[in-house]
Amino acid sequence: MTALLQRIGAPSRSSSALKSLARCVTNSASKEVVGAAGSPKPSQAIPYQEADANTPKELWQAPNHPGTWSRGQNPRPHAMSGPRFEQKDLRFQAAPFAAMDAVAQDPIRLVDGRRATCDGGGGPLGHPKIFINLDKPGPKPCGYCGIRFEQAHHEH
């Protein structure tokens, strides 16, 4: 930085002023917000609790599913908190249906070989083509779209 200031012809005392200013800025970071490595500390996790049918409908995670479907997911009232969601009524916020029921209603696709391929329907709305190993018994879901495949066992 000093070489750059000398190249543009700035006086040397301005470089010391810049250094002291940089020192003040770096020392003014809050110790509560920034961890030892300089990265922000994660917010406190909300304990997992399963919602039931008695929970008010506007607090359901989706219109067809009362609770969260993974442990890493925050419940709807806690997920929509903070200054971005102040003065927002959850009853008027978008609440799309959970796709779990639609995927569960889709029949398991039987495959003759030991491998199934899935590309999500192909075309621009699909996903990358993946191969699913069907050696172990039971249906195996696609990691992208959730379509389930199972090996068709033929009687010999």
UniProtKB/TrEMBL annotation:
Disordered, as annotated region: 58-83
Zinc finger CHCC-type domain span: 113-149
Recorded GO CC terms: mitochondrion
Residues spanning the signal sequence: none
Gene Ontology annotations of biological process type: mitochondrial electron transport, NADH to ubiquinone
UniProt feature coiled coil, ranges: none
InterPro entries recorded: Znf_CHCC
Record protein name field: Zinc finger CHCC-type domain-containing protein
Organism: Naganishia liquefaciens
Taxonomic lineage of the native organism: Eukaryota, Fungi, Dikarya, Basidiomycota, Agaricomycotina
